[in-house]
């Protein structure tokens, strides 16, 4: 549809340019500066009628230039990350320090535990920004869990199965399927839940309601919504934030999607782009293949 509209626009521009030229041919000789103005007008019309080919062929609400392939990377039991997948660059999250006015002085966050936690750098910066914005609105957020390697996830999954007599209850992802391995997934909780086992009752906390409403403004989405359990195959987690970048996050949250649904739409847009003759190298970074189990 975009291509057809653009062809029509180009044709109209060409007809207008021809009409202007014809009018000028039958008129009295104009001053040099009038010719100059006419030439500029025609050039402007031509330039507007020839946008980038990718813009013509890419039919999706989020522009390719507004997405980073790693930021929208999917990790679940059907799209596994490899054992060697480590997001870059990873940074260690600092415990927040503030001056006498409460202003953050070291770019840190409140941490629910004393253990070292890491996140991908852009995600880390966005989490600090979101935490500070929440504080301005009267809510204090705590980072409880961040990046986990494949090996760490494997240990956690094994221990969970052992505890539940071999049953996967949907609370711990198997290795390669964890959103935490992307370095973009983090568990963020209210002060009152720092030392509690997390469950869906946390959704009633004002802090979680604030995150659900505002997280997209900082590039985060609620990774596992309550109405998408049949798609994500993960229980509702009102604490699990996932960084995807502001344009993608805004589209996902405003349209009530989960990341799996976004990827389904993205894959369809990529296929259409290729069918229309788009450059494969432009979309190749966004095409994921599951790692072998």
Description:
With 293 residues, this protein is α+β, with helices and mostly antiparallel strands. The protein has two domains: 2-51; 64-282, Muramoyl-pentapeptide Carboxypeptidase, domain 2 (2-Layer Sandwich). The protein has ten helices and six strands. The strands form two sheets. A four-stranded antiparallel β-sheet has the order 3-4-6-5. Strands 1-2 form a two-stranded antiparallel ribbon. Helix 1 (2-25) runs antiparallel to helix 2 (32-48). The model is unreliable at 1-13, 15-25 and 27-49 (pLDDT under 50).
Inertia-based shape: globular
Distance between the termini: 41 Å
Helix content: 40-55%
% residues in beta strands: 5-15%
Report the structural category: alpha+beta
CATH architecture of the largest domain: 2-Layer Sandwich
Low-confidence stretches: 1-13, 15-25, 27-49
Based on DSSP secondary structure assignment, what is the total number of beta strands?
A: 6
Which fold name fills CATH's third level, the topology of the largest domain?
A: Muramoyl-pentapeptide Carboxypeptidase, domain 2
Task: Going across the biggest sheet, name each strand in turn.
Answer: 3-4-6-5
Mean pLDDT comes to: 87
Number of helices: 10
Whole-angstrom Rg: 25 Å
CATH class categorisation of the largest domain: Alpha Beta
Largest sheet: 4 strands, antiparallel
User: Order of SSEs, N→C?
Assistant: HHHEEHEHEHEHEHHH
Number of domains: 2
